[in-house]
Specification:
Elements: E1 28-30, H1 33-42, E2 46-48, H2 57-67, E3 79-87, H3 91-110, H4 129-137, E4 142-145, H5 147-161, E5 165-169, H6 175-189
Parallel strand pairs: 1-2, 2-3, 3-4, 3-5
Length: 192
């Protein structure tokens, strides 16, 4: 991809027209330490998918930053993290809305493909203890709660990881509540 979108003098036998010379920015997206090593080696921006695979997030951030090699594309590391964000008016509402996300990840654990489900009052009858543990491990890094709670969580996250950019994913069943979650998060980021 770097060759195909790079300058004409670096093209090989196959040329990607009209891609040649467009210098489209490329990012390495990953959910493992292997992708962190590749992004560092190539000197490219790195996006870690902690919205479904947070287990290796901290190690991947460290590997990427410590092994980063400046390149024609980037002088210093540029770290992005994708996070689950459920921002609502109250912490209680966020807890209930989060059951949609929990059901989404339960689908993954069970190998089913149900569409996004509405929130429920309790997940107890929907999953077994092992399924709960597996699904919960996929969402262990999340920003969730009222505006004040999410703001505090984001502040703590940034103090610890100092990422350059955050991509938010909100598994919320109701489109209006999902939109509101993004609005609340935007207000937090903008300091409103």
């Amino acid at each position: 991809m770097l060759t195909y979108f790079g300058p004409e003098e670096k093209q090989g036998y196959v040329k990607a027209y009209p891609g040649v010379g467009t210098k489209i920015p490329l990012y390495i997206l990953g959910s493992s330490t292997d992708s962190a090593n590749l992004a560092a080696q190539l000197g490219l921006p790195y996006v870690f998918a902690s919205h479904f695979a947070p287990r290796h997030m901290e190690e991947a951030i460290s590997i990427y930053r410590n092994r980063f090699q400046p390149s024609d594309y980037l002088d210093s590391p540029y770290m992005m993290i994708c996070l689950n964000v459920i921002a609502t008016e109250t912490d209680e509402e966020a807890k209930r809305e989060s059951t949609t996300m929990q059901q989404f990840f339960l689908n993954i654990v069970q190998g089913t493909q149900f569409p996004l489900q509405p929130p429920v009052n309790s997940m107890d009858n929907l999953w077994s203890e092992p399924e709960k543990e597996m699904a919960s491990s996929m969402t262990s890094v999340a920003l969730m709660g009222s505006k004040e709670t999410v703001k505090a969580q984001l502040t703590n996250f940034q103090e610890k990881y100092k990422v350059d950019e955050i991509m938010a994913v909100s598994f919320i069943f109701n489109p209006e509540k999902q939109k509101r979650s993004y609005q609340i998060f935007k207000e937090i980021v903008e300091g409103k």
